[in-house]
Amino acid sequence: MILRKFARDILSCLPVLLGFLTIHSALAAAYIVPSASMEPTLMIGDQIGVVVPSYGLSTANLPFGHALKPRDSSGGRLFGHLPRRGDVVVFRAPANLHQTWIKRVIGLPGDRIALVQGHVVLNGTELAWKDMGPAREESRRGIWLPAERYDETLPGNVHHNILKLSQDGELDNIAPFTVPAGHLFVMGDNRDNSADSRVSVADGGVGLLPVWNLQGQARAILWSWRDITRTALIL
Q1: How far is 199 from 90, CA to CA, in rounded Å?
Q2: Could you give the maximum distance between any two Cα atoms of the chain, in Å?
Q3: Taking every annotated instance into account, which residue ranges of this chain make up the domain Peptidase S26 (predicted)?
Q4: What is the reported pLDDT for 14?
Q5: Annotated catalytic sites, by residue?
Q6: Single pTM value for the model
Q7: Which helix (H) or strand (E) holds 2?
Q8: From 145's CA, which of 43, 48, 72, 109 has a CA 20 to 30 Å away?
Q9: Spatial contact of 103 and 93, defined as CB atoms under 8 Å apart
């Protein structure tokens, strides 16, 4: 039954997979996840399919886009529109424009954000967590640490899983602030092992992400070396 279900899932996703493998790179691309920052959603080594024009296009999508960053990087997108909260996005890392990083969008321009003991407070409402039980984090290849898995709910009843290694991490408490125009607040699903918008660019993190940096939306896991049953999983 499990094998039959897996085969059925593969067949149902086959058009999407073929699209990612055959469409010109101006429309779609594939990336390999290099780190643990998006666990448990994405594992180290996962190959993911990305729809490039999901949020319009900017010079960040060009091969030499790192050299073409506009002075005002909060805009400058052709047919641009904002992601939705919960979207998994790839982008040029503000700390190193040669690198492509991946995180989840939590806050949009104008949102009021705070963190209290690890919980995100979005526009005055704490995002609900449901404890899903013990899990493991592969912090580096072959190095596993105990963690706890939670289901987090964003506005619009958007659910995703997160990992917590501790209940009092150094990034678990952030004073309230407002996301400025043309920027996004992004986080890794592995909340205690992600240099995301909680970490400044000067310290090697994302900081508040300019929309110019967006390169597309991650839509599917094309292949997973860690767990073959996650292959063809739509994000």
Answers
A1: 17
A2: 56
A3: 10-223
A4: 45
A5: 37, 103
A6: 0.86
A7: helix 2-22
A8: 48
A9: no
